[in-house]
Design goal:
heterodimer; A: about 150 residues; alpha+beta; Aldehyde Oxidoreductase, domain 3; four-stranded antiparallel sheet; 8 strands; about 35% helix; about 35% strand; B: about 80 residues; Ubiquitin-like (UB roll); 5 strands; globular
């Protein structure tokens, strides 16, 4: 399941959506949460907030395709992907990826696969708002190197 | 018509979210389309490594033929997550 939303999410209730207490087959749940952090290149400035833009329609499709690829590759039960957009403050949650499976290996691998491809294939763009200036974040070459391992 | 969308830094540089471009024989690929747009919007070159999507699918081959009615988006490299 994939959601793009402006509002914050509660990790506990999002996790419960894919790990219900009446399910006995789930042996593992792995979550990844990404936060707004201060990584402005200009060290004389301080990040105060971030603005996230996406491509309505394409972004949802791209996320669903990534989920599908993970499901085809690993024996996993369920996936919950949430990505926020709009203005986010320092330390706010940006993204959640949660995966359930019978055994931990599949959940770990699938969760990492999903966040790695989300960073290169799902159209989101971040703009950092600092005290003095604002700037669009440049793509990180390391993100592209990471997907080569899959 | 080809519906053209711009996102993020490109949208800000061009000061436009979307526009319609008439589909013609010399605007029949992504490369031809962006060259056509460049005549009016030279600021396109202020953004490096521009990516394109056709009908909401990432398009790596810019010589891919476009069809009348296609939606083409141009944007900087993705930086989500």
């Amino acid at each position: 399941m994939v959601r793009i939303q402006q509002e914050d999410f509660d990790i506990n209730s999002e996790v419960k959506k894919i790990k219900r207490s009446d399910e006995s087959g789930v042996g593992a749940l792995v979550t990844f949460v990404g936060y707004v952090r201060d990584f402005k290149e200009d060290k004389s400035d301080t990040l105060t907030s971030m603005e996230i833009e996406f491509y309505p329609g394409m972004t949802e499709k791209a996320l669903l395709e990534i989920e599908e690829k993970a499901r085809r590759t690993w024996d996993i039960f369920d996936v919950n992907i949430i990505h926020r957009f709009g203005k986010l403050n320092l330390n706010d949650e940006i993204v959640l990826v949660a995966v359930t499976s019978a055994h931990r290996t599949e959940s770990f691998r699938a969760c990492e696969f999903i966040i790695d491809f989300l960073k290169t294939d799902a159209p989101f763009w971040k703009k950092e708002i600092g005290v003095k200036s604002e700037s669009w974040v440049d793509a990180n070459i390391k993100d592209y190197e990471k997907i080569n391992k899959w | 018509m080809i519906k053209v969308l711009f996102f993020a830094k490109l949208r800000e540089e061009l000061k436009i979210n979307e526009l319609d471009v008439e589909y013609k024989a010399d605007v029949a690929s992504i490369r031809e389309l962006i060259n056509h747009l460049r005549q009016e919007y030279q600021q396109i070159d202020n953004v490096k490594n521009i990516k394109a999507a056709v009908n909401q699918e990432l398009a790596l081959d810019w010589d891919l033929s476009l069809k009348d009615g296609d939606e083409v988006a141009f944007f900087p490299p993705i930086t989500g997550g």
